[in-house]
Hints:
alpha+beta, two-stranded antiparallel ribbon, 2 helices, 2 strands, 49% helix
Amino acid sequence: MNIAKLAGIVLIAAGCLGLVYGGFSYTKETTGMQLGPIALKVEEKQTVNVPLIASASAIIAGVFLLAFKRK
Length: 71
């Protein structure tokens, strides 16, 4: 399996996941206040939306890499 074929499969999988889920979220921990040795930690939930055009472009690029690979 060459690099172009592997990259095409990864792009198609990532594009499909982007279409299905539409984004992802993660928790970011920050220090809200620090008073000497005592620190107040704050957890913030951040959400990242994946644009529809980016997911569709990844799928198209993956199909292109699989269909038109060089021999």
